[in-house]
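In response to the reviewer comment on reproducibility (Comment 2.3), we provide here a single inverse folding case reported in full, input and output, so that an independent group could reproduce the run without further information from us. The structure tokens appear first.
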């Protein structure tokens, strides 16, 4: 059975494409909690952006050496069109206390790529800006979802954006190189933190509540004819600076690199 370009096999034979496939070592309780959490995130994103371009299947697998619970909860993964790949260590599988916050954020981040991954193909944007919007945009969307889910809303968003700004400043200052050069040379972690701040700035240019602006921003961004909205100058002090206590350094850092 082929799912939009992916084939699933069992004992060498094709099987019907499942919505959730997991290693035998992944307990049913974890799979159930994962499914519920993913559905919550998808519902939040659908409310803002409409249905994802395609149905989504998840594959959960144990990372190499993942049975060792002494290593805590470690994870990695990827989001492809219609497919979420979630790799875990056994320390993540105890559902008695719910998901760790960073795992919850990771799942929400990867889920959002089902909506924003087409930004990678926008030739009208530089590669650095595409990566900033891809990863930073997913970070911002996950923060908006988690902040609404746990009831922290503005406080949680301000906390997350502030932490991202500080991380962006620290990494870029330490390297003492232009942000775009660092990203183009492979320091993609900067795209997560700096890109989250950049996305936040663009959201609050649309509406003071970034959750309200989420749908408008991404629908406009992914419309190739409107990509010129990123080419103009922005009064960062008037938008971002007035909203959180993060130093003006982040505003200068982004402006110096053409954002």
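Designed residues, in position order:
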């Amino acid at each position: 059975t082929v799912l939009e370009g992916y084939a699933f096999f069992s004992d060498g034979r094709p099987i019907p494409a499942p919505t959730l496939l997991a290693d035998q070592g992944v307990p049913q309780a974890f799979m159930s909690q994962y499914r519920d959490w993913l559905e919550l995130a998808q519902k939040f994103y659908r409310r803002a952006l409409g249905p994802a371009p395609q149905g989504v299947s998840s594959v959960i697998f144990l990372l190499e050496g993942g049975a060792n619970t002494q290593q805590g909860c470690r994870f990695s993964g990827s989001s492809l069109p219609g497919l979420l790949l979630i790799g875990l260590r056994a320390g993540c599988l105890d559902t008695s206390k719910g998901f760790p916050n960073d795992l919850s954020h990771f799942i929400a981040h990867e889920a959002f790529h089902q909506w924003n991954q087409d930004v990678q193909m926008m030739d009208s944007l530089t590669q650095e800006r595409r990566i900033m919007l891809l990863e930073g945009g997913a970070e911002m969307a996950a923060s908006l979802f988690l902040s609404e889910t746990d009831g922290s809303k503005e406080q949680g968003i301000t906390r997350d954006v502030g932490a991202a700004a500080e991380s962006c400043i620290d990494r870029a200052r330490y390297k003492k190189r232009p942000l775009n050069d660092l990203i183009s040379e492979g320091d993609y972690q900067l795209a997560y933190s700096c890109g989250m701040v950049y996305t936040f700035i663009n959201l609050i240019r649309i509406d003071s509540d970034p959750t309200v602006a989420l749908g408008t921003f991404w629908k406009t961004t992914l419309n190739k004819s409107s990509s010129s909205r990123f080419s103009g100058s922005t009064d960062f002090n008037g938008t971002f600076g007035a909203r959180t206590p993060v130093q003006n350094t982040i505003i200068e850092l982004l402006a110096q690199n053409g954002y």
